[in-house]
Design goal:
The protein has 440 residues and is mostly helical. It is 72% helix and 0% strand. It has a single domain (16-430), classed as Amino acid/polyamine transporter I. Helix 4 (77-85) crosses helix 15.
Length: 440
């Protein structure tokens, strides 16, 4: 098994707390505030879909924790795919994963400024774009200081954004009404419709767990990675699941399912019910949502840099992209990711956010393709892992469940996913040929 460490940051590496923060922050985005509204139309039975989504996320977390302890290299998913299927599969996995890692950041920035506009009146398109570019510059500057500094910042941001998400459910307890959780009409229909409801709810709920693999990208820069990575991935994902469970259940318990359908600010509605005379609920939620977006933006910017640097170290990307600065950060890769977001932000200003959101929906589905390929790579390599026959059979069962879950989700939008993948492959072919020719 590979156990390389490429620490170029003067011996400064990511500790357990920083890795857990990356796991949590990469998954907990501003979407946490919209989960109650998203799941409300499904009624009580939709909570079973949430359970299914958590099961899929935990199975993937267990797979990535196992792989990260066996193959300790920067880059994340492509490392495992290349080990199982070779260089070409490794390149296109790295290429696809790298693009979606920073492209999706555009929605974080748009979401953050949307919440800001709820506080600041008359925020025009140029001011909005200026603020978004300023946020990119700030996060890029932090990440150019190296993974150690970025990790410290992420610990602070994660603490600031997670603490309120644990406090809010307890504030809602005083107004909690268990009557809202009676079996709804949609739950009492035939088995086919019930299953369809669970499936749709699971699809929406799983988006909150995208990023479960994020901590594997800087594996070579983690202290004691064999123990730190598996523990951080499992603990971080479990923490994310608990955050979602507490918040969704508590908001449902205060407002009810019907009161949250199509609600644009479910938490603000819940706060107004708990504190009727409190007029700043929208401001508090907006500030918290902005903080969450910035924390997630930092986590994915760190990951994007490590994905590219890991791919360069494995000879998959042009070497210049991963060349470290004095802090060990891949300057070119980070700058490409930063400037690459701007066209999407301009598009959102010109045509609105609907098209951008649709694009990101495709990107999220592509994450599932990457997860599926990693699950297949995991199944292929289980025979290399040490352990008893019974343990290997458990690993096979885990891999099959995770792969089946990914197929289950992908199948819901297979045609659009195939088209998006084809575009990614076509865009990657010139880079692959240039890299291949330069290595000959």
């Amino acid at each position: 098994m590979n156990s390389e460490s490429h620490s170029n940051n003067n011996g400064k590496q990511l500790g357990f707390l920083a890795v857990v923060s990356i796991v949590i922050s990469s998954q907990v985005g501003s979407g946490v505030f919209m989960f109650p509204s998203t799941l409300a139309p499904f009624g009580t039975i939709g909570l079973l879909g949430w359970v299914l989504a958590v099961s899929g996320a935990i199975s993937l977390a267990l797979i990535f924790s196992e792989l990260s302890s066996k193959f300790i290299k920067n880059g994340g998913p492509h490392v495992y795919v290349m080990e199982a299927f070779g260089e070409k599969a490794g390149f296109f996995t790295a290429w696809t994963y790298w693009i979606i890692s920073w492209t999706s950041n555009s929605v974080l920035l748009v979401t953050a400024t949307n919440y800001l506009s709820a506080i600041v009146d008359n925020l025009g398109p140029f001011q909005t774009l200026f603020i978004q570019v300023g946020a990119i510059a700030l996060i890029t500057s932090i990440n150019l200081m190296g993974v150690h500094i970025s990790g410290i910042v992420e610990v602070c941001l994660t603490f600031l954004k997670v603490t309120p998400l644990f406090i809010l459910p307890f504030l809602f307890l005083g107004s909690f009404n268990s009557e809202y959780f009676r079996i709804s009409d949609i739950s009492s229909t035939d088995a086919t419709e019930t299953l369809s409801t669970i499936i749709k709810a699971a699809l929406f709920a799983f988006w909150g767990f995208i990023g479960v693999e994020c901590a594997t990208t800087p594996a070579g820069r983690v202290k004691n990675p064999e123990k730190t990575l598996p523990r951080a991935i499992i603990m971080g994902t479990a923490c994310v699941a608990l955050i979602y469970l507490l918040n969704v259940i508590s908001v449902f318990g205060v407002v009810g399912f019907e009161g949250l359908i199509d609600a644009k600010a479910p938490y603000a509605i819940a706060l107004s019910k708990v504190f009727p005379n409190y007029l700043s609920g929208h401001i508090f939620i907006s500030l918290l949502a902005m903080l969450i977006c910035i924390g997630t933006l930092n986590a994915w910017t760190l990951s994007a840099g490590q994905i590219a640097q890991g791919a360069c170290e494995d000879g998959l990307f042009p070497k210049i992209w991963g060349k470290p600065n004095k802090n060990g950060a891949p300057t070119v890769a980070i700058l490409i990711a930063a400037f690459g977001i701007i066209p999407f932000l301009i598009t959102a200003q010109i045509f609105g956010t609907e098209g951008l959101n649709r694009l990101v929906d495709f990107m999220v589905n592509i994450f599932l393709v990457v997860y599926f390929v990693c699950a297949i790579a995991y199944l292929k390599m289980i025979k290399k892992f040490q352990g008893t026959l019974s343990k290997r059979l458990k690993l096979y069962a885990l891999g099959l469940f995770a792969a089946s879950f990914c197929i289950f989700v992908i199948a819901q939008d297979a045609f659009n996913i195939a088209i998006t993948l084809l575009i990614f492959i076509l865009l990657g072919i010139p880079v692959y040929m240039i890299r291949k020719n330069s290595s000959n």
